[in-house]
Amino acid sequence: MRGLAGFLLCSLLLLALHGTQVAAQDERPDPRMPCANWMGGVPGHPGHNGLPGRDGKDGKDGQKGEIGLPGVVGLPGFPGAAGPMGQPGIPGMKGQKGESAYVYRSAFSVGLTERAPHPNVPIRFTKIFYNQQNHYDASTGKFLCSIPGTYYFAYHLTVYLTDVKVSLYKKDRAVIITYDQFQNNNVDQASGSVLLHLSTGDEVWLQVYGEGSNNGVYADNTNDSTFMGFLLYPDTD
């Protein structure tokens, strides 16, 4: 009995001693930890920056994204500075022929000085109002065409003492004939006008038509008998 009791007591003592050692080992700090619970050390200095790592491999392209919404239209910008002058362009096509810059002039205005011109011959209007181009010949009473084209002619004749029958001639042919019957104790007027196309060298004049009984063309200081003509449109061809 004593031997068994002694053995049990010894076993209990060994167990108690072993538990104390285990507990003491559990309370020791892990040396791998920065700071042990049972011992507070001074914090260390930060370490140096490490070297950059190498670039990784390119990844695979991702899926195409959806189309975004349209952006807002911006405001117009300020005009830019003028650029340098460009090179001359290629000449254009030749234009159509225009009218001549030359101004064609042919005109006359004359009056009568004789009271009773002779019949069947050109009436000589010797009072010159205008004859700058000298296309009217006062010595013959005829207008000579120097510029072919369309002309306007007109006459205003005072009628006195007897009837008047006059005609406007072109190249020995009567173009128009005017007749005015004289009224006693009165002064009348005979007039006419016409458009004619003339060629170079054509002549135009006035003359009493018929016999001397129709020769009442008159002129004095207060009454005039006039004859005039001028070029309207020259032939440009």
UniProtKB/TrEMBL annotation:
Q: InterPro entries of this UniProt entry?
A: C1q_dom, Collagen, Collagen/C1q_domain, Tumour_necrosis_fac-like_dom
Where is the stretch described as Disordered?
A: 40-66
Name this protein carries in UniProt = ADIPO protein
Q: What residue stretches are annotated with the C1q domain?
A: 101-237
PANTHER family per the UniProt record, alphabetical: ADIPONECTIN, EMILIN ELASTIN MICROFIBRIL INTERFACE-LOCATED PROTEIN ELASTIN MICROFIBRIL INTERFACER
Q: What residue range is the signal peptide? A: 1-24
Q: Which GO terms describe its cellular component?
A: collagen trimer; extracellular region
Q: Where in the cell is it found?
A: Secreted
Q: Which domain of life is it from?
A: Eukaryota
Keyword field: Collagen, Hydroxylation, Secreted, Signal
Please name the source species.
Penelope pileata
Q: Which residue ranges have biased composition labelled Basic and acidic residues? A: 54-64
SUPFAM superfamilies associated with the record: TNF-like
Give any Pfam family that matches.
Collagen
Question: Carries keyword Transcription regulation?
Answer: no
Chief location of this protein within or outside the cell: secreted
Q: Identify the PROSITE patterns for this entry.
A: C1Q (PS50871)
Q: Which residues form a coiled coil?
A: none
